[in-house]
Amino acid sequence: MPEPLPRLRWIPTGNVRTVSAANFLTGLYQNVLNVVLQRFVLDFGGGLTLLGLLQAFGGRFGLVASLVQPVGGHLADLRGRRAVAIRGSLLSMAGLALLIAAAAFRGQAWAVPALLVPAYLCAGLGMISAPALQSAVAEAAHPRARASAFATTTFFWILPGALLAIPGGVVADLLGYGALFGIAFALEAVNLVLFSRFLVETREVPLAKFMQALQFTYTRYYNRRYATSGHLFQGRYQAIVCDRDAYLVALVRYVHLNPGRLKRPVDPWRYPWSSHRAYPGAAGPVQVETAVVLGQFGNHVGRARHAYRRFMADGLGRGHEAQYYATVDQRLLGDEAFIEAVDQKTGRGREIERARRPVVFARLVRAVAQQQGVEAGGLVGPGRQRAGVGARAMLVYLGREWSQVSTKELGRQLHRDPSIISRLYWWYVANRDLDAEAKLAKVLER
Question: Residue 111 maps to which CATH number?
Answer without folding.
Answer: 1.20.1250.20
